[in-house]
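The record is given unchanged here:
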Amino acid sequence: MKKVMLLLIEGLSKLGLDKLNRALSFGALLVVILAYVSGSVKFDHNWFSFLFRWFHVISGVMWIGLLWYFNFVQIPSMPKIPDEQKPAIGKVIAPTALFWFRWAALSTLVTGLVVGGMQGYLQHALSLGFLAEGPSKDIYIGLGMWLGLIMAFNVWNIIWPNQKIALGIVEGSADEKKAAARIAMLTSRFNTMFSIPMLYFMVAAQNLA
């Protein structure tokens, strides 16, 4: 089995899968083919609602994955990195990660609101079920949505503006950079804390209601 997988990987490498854009293009092509073959494509309201939910999940995986990368990997590792190597993080890795991080947050927010609108629960969810007759799904998804909205607000209005100062994208003194880096880090920790109940209620809405 191992040899077969190695041969398969070697064969795929000849298609240029060492390049990310190729891997993503082939992944998109694969899902289109499999979706049609499996008969899952319907081009009706439910399918388009599902499509946006899929986009929502993909965006959320990117967003929370990068949030947890920052908090579980990059931030704890920074004190262990020699000073001469730290510029590679601040000048190359962090700006790229933050680009995908903030736009994934926005995409997660927008696609989630679209799904809520298409499914007809947006108003009831945002009111935490007070406008409905008490279905628990509205409360569950509403709690998850509000936690996600607060987290997305923090990304664009606190974390990113302060990271721009900390990384030197926006000019600032040494003291300002230090203060901005701490604010961004603490807000990122806050979002990590919020991500735990947010994910709980997002899943609860699909499984416990």
Residues 154 and 194 are 11 Å apart (CA to CA). The mean pLDDT is 93.
